Amino acid sequence: LLKYFIEANLYLVCFYLLYQILLARDKHFRFNRAFLISGILLSILLPLVSFPMNSPTPTTGTLEGYILLPAVTVTNAQTESVSFILKWWYIIGIIYAIGVLFFFVRLIWQMIHIMRNLPLLNSSREKKDGYTLVTTNGEIPTCSFFKYLFWDKSIDLSEEEKQQILTHELAHIRQWHSFDVLLVELLRSVFWFNPVVHLIKSRITEVHEYLADFHATKQIGVEQYSKLLTLQIFKSFDFALSNNFHKSQVLK
Q1: Using an 8 Å Cβ cutoff, are 184 and 200 in contact?
Q2: Which of 70, 171, 228, 231 could link 215 by a cystine bridge, Cβ 3.0 to 4.6 Å?
């Protein structure tokens, strides 16, 4: 298990460094997304694969040999040393388990935080083409989660601005960005001690926003869309699992 954790984390570090060196400034956002997700999956799976090594051909005949090893006496000091090492491994295991429990509980709470609002908003649901529109009055910011698009109607927007934000959020829904977010959150729960995992989460979120922005600018143009980002930059919400329009990397 320790060998698996070491190898998996080394693969994650290598994939992240490759991304930062080769692709971080690249504008092929679909490829960047595929590289990051593939890097995560390969980092998890590669340590489980054992590559066969060519062993030397055994010689014919019977070899008999005897080696007399010297007697080894285990002293009390050696016993105490082994006990001390096991004690520290036990403590490290407890710390790791607490971290995993914390991140899993946080992930579950975040999902409940989103999903618990759905039964309360049945009257505000409206089935659309490929998604479900849920209108709110400020309880949830305008964002998307899987097939649900939460729309905060308490914010005063022009029809043009509404259409631009809708286009952005529909890109998140139709490109299944929520699956990526959940995958990364599960990865963070298991490998929470690796700082690279948290950096990968930021990179994937960033690529999601670029993909959605790219889709929106194809329909309305870069200049018009930039004006909308400027208007919305001060309206910030923290809704960790959702794909939030206000999280766009505005300057980039």
Answers
A1: yes
A2: 171
Spatial contact of 124 and 134, defined as CB atoms under 8 Å apart: yes
Closest to 34 in 3D by CA, of 12, 17, 14, 19? 19
Spatial distance between the Cα atoms of 19 and 39, rounded to a whole number of angstroms:
9
For residue 134, count other CB atoms closer than 10 A to its CB. Answer: 19
What does the pLDDT read at residue 111?
86
> 151 - beta bridge partners?
135
Q: Tell me the pLDDT tens digit for each residue of 75-101.
A: 666 676 777 777 888 888 899 999 999
Judge contact between 173 and 130, C-beta under 8 A. Answer: yes
Query: Are 189 and 103 within 8 A, CB to CB?
Result: yes
pLDDT at 55: 58
- Within 10 A of 233 (CB to CB), how many other CB atoms are there? 12
Residue pLDDT, tens place only, 165-178: 888 999 999 999 99
- Bridge partners of 144, per DSSP, are 149, 243
Please give the C-alpha separations between residue 185 and each of 6, 40, 114, 156, 215, in angstroms, as whole numbers.
20, 12, 15, 33, 25
Look at 225 and 51; give whichever has higher pLDDT: 225
